[in-house]
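Subject: Sanity check before I submit

Could someone independently write out the structure tokens for this chain? I want to compare against mine line by line before I put it in a report. The sequence has 390 residues.
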Amino acid sequence: MAAAGSTPGTPGTPSVLRAMNDRAVLDLLVAHGPLTRTRIGELTGLSKPTTSQLLGRLEAAGLVHTTGSLSGRPGPNALLYEIDPGAGHVAALSANPTGITALVADITGTVLGQARVEAVAVAEDVRHRTAQLVTEAVDEALRQAGLGHDDLRAAVIGTPGAIDPHTGALRYAPHLPGWHSRTLRDDLAAVLGTPVDIENDVNLAAVAEQYEGAAQDNDNYVLTWLDEGVGAAIVLGGTLLRGATGGAGEIGYMPLPGAPLVRTGPQDGGGGGGGFESLVSAYVVRELTGGGATLAQVMADDAALGEVARRIATGIAAVVAVVDPELVVLSGSVAQAGGDKLRARVEEELTGLALPRPQIRISELDGDPILTGALRSALTQARDQVFDTA
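---
Independent answer below. Compare away.
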């Protein structure tokens, strides 16, 4: 019963304070893994009785459970508490011109199922069944996990381009015609049975870097994606910069010296073909030594490596001059093929091109950073729901 003059949920009331303590403990268990009651009390500053009551409450709510005990100390063994993985589940997806990959994970982030549906995005029979293909991928991942649609709390899909916040349409991705419906997000939510976010793939790669990659210690950084497509994600003050139409970071279309100047952009139905991407995409880099070479072979040629570094540095300099990041992370297949040699050459070539001198790092994430970022984003959304005990 609320105190006189207050309403449930009023800041400072016992129910709100309890919910805040609950969330603090749940976040600790996510970050640290299993902890004893004593250790939880030490980390939160809560008294033993309060900690015991809190853990009992969370256990009754199905949010935590005991998982063995800690031995080797004087006195009785101490019970270990951890997040109950069955408290919620999420789906994370990555879509590209050749297909859709989906994974399903529990609320702790443990992946329980993963599936891939191959589909050429521009094929006529694919254009009108995007939602069906997404469902096929998610359903197979759910089947592997022994789960159903009702178990999902959130789904995040990474795709080239960006959803315009005003129109709901996908922009900057003419090579994904089936994804351009303004009702796609609602259509996907209806077939998956959970809210769906469609996010730019490079933005999600930046999320992955911030959680467990090269940008963990930075709040101001730029992720430069160098692959078959080229783009960037810009994080300032820990916040992702999206722009008025969701197109912040579409540097593949940025005009640069030496690049063809193409005035018909993707928003007009064109496929680009000029700008930064025409200088440093994986396809262009593979052709630098005469064609037929792999990226690794091109990068082993010192002259070609130097040319790629010069081109990358020219594009980065334009971004650095505007947003002045502490760090630039190079990711994607071109960056991975070049490795630290490419990083050093880019750093050298950047000297004098822009007054700020950010650190340059190569991404060292394992697996697909887009899927990793989608999973992290979906977990954040799901935990905000599941861990809210107010």
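---
OP: Matches mine. For the report I'm noting this point. Residues 1-8, 266-272 have pLDDT under 50 and may be disordered.
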